[in-house]
Amino acid sequence: MFTTTPIPATASKTELYEEAARQMRGLLRGEHNPVANAANFSALVFHALPDISWCGFYFPDETGDGLVVGPFQGKPACVRLSHGKGVCGAAVTTRRTQVVPDVTTFPGHIYCDGAARSEIVVPLFRTDGSLVGVWDVDSYSVGRFDEDDRIGMEALCLQFIQTLAVPPRRQPAAS
Ligand code: SME
């Protein structure tokens, strides 16, 4: 059984993300199932990092044009997001992490929880540049996310993406 280690409240953001990354390495090690890893990734971030009201994944939907919710932690969320809409859509179209200190100032922000006040969304791409989805984190606090969070969340997301590269199966020895 995996147990998360409480991170001291006195830790700096850098220390916080270093410890979260250490725990994430142990949690994801050897597992390549994307659903399981997305679920555990969401749970670890939600319980390890402070002042997060919701965190989870959106993946390309059946059309390949919009996004559909994946594993997450927090209140029930919007299931589908149309192409280019919201903070998640901006992350996909710009291919850049969106750090939103105050969602009321982001044109087209989509409220899944009316109490959300800040957000960070990391677009996820494979090494060939194809879209995996987005990692979305909300907070009830204005200004919760900054450059340290962008660096830390992107580093955590890279761990998730790296689990998707499934090592080639060992071929059974020729009989
Ligand atoms: N706020 C996001 C929608 C997803 S909810 O936050 C979970 C957006 O504007 O894309």
Structural summary, described in words:
This protein has 175 residues and is α+β, with helices and mostly antiparallel strands. The protein has a single domain (13-165), classed as 2-Layer Sandwich (Beta-Lactamase). The chain has helices spanning 13-28, 34-48, 86-94, 147-164; strands at residues 54-60, 67-74, 80-81, 98-100, 118-125, 131-139. A 6-stranded antiparallel sheet has the order 3-2-1-6-5-4, with helices on both faces. The model has no long low-confidence stretch (mean pLDDT 94). Bound molecules: methionine sulfoxide. Methionine sulfoxide binds next to helix 3 and strand 6.
Brief write-up:
By secondary structure, the protein is of the alpha+beta class. Helix content is 33%, strand content 21%.
What sequence of helices (H) and strands (E) makes up the elements? HHEEEHEEEH
Number of domains: 1
CATH superfamily: GAF domain
Q: Let me know the number of strands.
A: 6
Which class of secondary structure composition applies to the elements? Answer: alpha+beta
Distance N terminus to C terminus? 38 Å
* Helix content percent band: 25-40%
Q: Determine the strand fraction and express it as a percent band.
A: 15-25%
Quickly count the helices: 4
**Top-tier CATH class:** Alpha Beta
Rounded average pLDDT: 94
Characterize the biggest β-sheet: 6 strands, antiparallel
Do you know the CATH architecture? Answer: 2-Layer Sandwich
CATH fold annotation: Beta-Lactamase
Q: Which residue ranges are poorly predicted, with pLDDT under 50 across at least 5 consecutive positions?
A: none
Strand order of the largest sheet: 3-2-1-6-5-4
Overall body shape: globular
Query: Which molecules other than protein and nucleic acid are bound?
Result: methionine sulfoxide
